[in-house]
């Protein structure tokens, strides 16, 4: 693909909460494309209405993406322009998008991804655990392979970032405390950029007790866990390998 090849598919980040967190370029692209592919047309429809935009919308989500891809590719190859959005944040990050992008690139259909909102970045920076080296794990396996994955991550020295749902956060915190140790520092952020935004930073064991005691937990959650601190051996005395001169 050359620089003059027109872009046919745009990945457009949408606000994770505060509607002011959409870029001017994102608004322009949403207004220019022929069709908007939405994870939930009702959710994205409210955003489009807020922006004063009217565009044909198609449902594109986890449960229909394999059935939709071929039809979308055919339309894109005919020159139709599309914007892919998720309910919140950047499409393709723990949301549908990868499959369509891969198939577009295989057919030399030009794809552009706009920079914009994504939940794990503010959660990472607010944790205070350092962003020089981190690993994004997304959602842990719900059942099969969950314990194995936790065991693999226990010795990871980089800051760990997870997405979690409100109804599973207590179980996840309890399991992490068991595998990583209850004293491992962690941070739970929920309702980011919204009116009731909250970030709680404490050891895993304390976080598990905190959230288990709550009557209700609302909002999508980002969990940040400090990486494993490697224990360095104490410096040996410089006289260890020398004869004691006083003898």
From TrEMBL:
Coiled coil stretches, renumbered: none
Localization in the cell: Cytoplasm
UniProt xrefs under InterPro entries: 4pyrrol_Mease (IPR000878), 4pyrrol_Methylase_sf (IPR035996), 4pyrrole_Mease_sub1 (IPR014777), 4pyrrole_Mease_sub2 (IPR014776), rRNA_ssu_MeTfrase_I (IPR008189), SAM_MeTrfase_RsmI_CS (IPR018063)
Any single Gene Ontology cellular-component annotation: cytoplasm
Domain called Tetrapyrrole methylase: residue spans: 9-208
Main location: cytoplasm
Cytoplasm found in the keyword field: yes
Molecular functions per Gene Ontology: rRNA (cytosine-2'-O-)-methyltransferase activity
Pfam annotation, one family: TP_methylase
Origin: domain of life: Bacteria
Assigned keywords, A-Z: Cytoplasm, Methyltransferase, rRNA processing, S-adenosyl-L-methionine, Transferase
Catalytic activity: cytidine(1402) in 16S rRNA + S-adenosyl-L-methionine = 2'-O-methylcytidine(1402) in 16S rRNA + S-adenosyl-L-homocysteine + H(+)
EC number: 2.1.1.198
Gene3D superfamilies recorded: Cobalt-precorrin-4 Transmethylase, Domain 1, Methyltransferase, Cobalt-precorrin-4 Transmethylase, Domain 2
Protein family membership: Belongs to the methyltransferase superfamily. RsmI family.
PANTHER family linked: RIBOSOMAL RNA SMALL SUBUNIT METHYLTRANSFERASE I
Its biological purpose: Catalyzes the 2'-O-methylation of the ribose of cytidine 1402 (C1402) in 16S rRNA.
HAMAP family associated with the record: 16SrRNA_methyltr_I
Protein name: Ribosomal RNA small subunit methyltransferase I
Species of provenance: Hymenobacter amundsenii
Taxonomy of the source species: Bacteria, Pseudomonadati, Bacteroidota, Cytophagia, Cytophagales
């Amino acid at each position: 693909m050359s620089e003059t090849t027109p872009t046919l598919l745009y990945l457009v980040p949408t606000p994770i909460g505060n509607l002011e967190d959409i870029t001017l370029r994102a608004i322009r692209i949403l207004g220019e494309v022929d069709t908007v592919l939405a994870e939930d047309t009702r959710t994205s429809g409210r955003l489009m209405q807020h922006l004063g935009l009217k565009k044909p919308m198609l449902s594109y989500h986890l449960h229909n993406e394999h059935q939709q891809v071929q039809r979308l590719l055919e339309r894109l190859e005919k020159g139709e322009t599309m914007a892919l959005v998720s309910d919140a944040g950047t499409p393709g990050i723990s949301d549908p998008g990868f499959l369509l992008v891969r198939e577009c690139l295989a057919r030399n259909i030009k794809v552009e991804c706009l920079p914009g909102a994504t939940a794990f970045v503010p959660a990472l920076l607010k944790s205070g655990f350092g962003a020089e080296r981190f690993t994004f794990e997304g959602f842990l396996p719900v059942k099969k392979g969950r314990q194995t994955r936790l065991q693999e991550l226990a010795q990871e020295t980089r800051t760990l970032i997870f997405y979690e749902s409100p109804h599973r956060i207590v179980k996840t915190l309890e399991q992490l405390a068991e595998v990583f140790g209850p004293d491992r520092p962690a941070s739970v952020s929920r309702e980011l950029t919204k009116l009731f935004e909250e970030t709680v930073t404490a050891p895993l064991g304390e976080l598990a007790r905190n959230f288990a005691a709550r009557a209700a937990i609302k909002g999508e959650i980002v969990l940040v866990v400090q990486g494993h601190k490697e224990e360095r051996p104490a410096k040996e005395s410089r006289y260890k390998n020398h004869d004691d001169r006083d003898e």
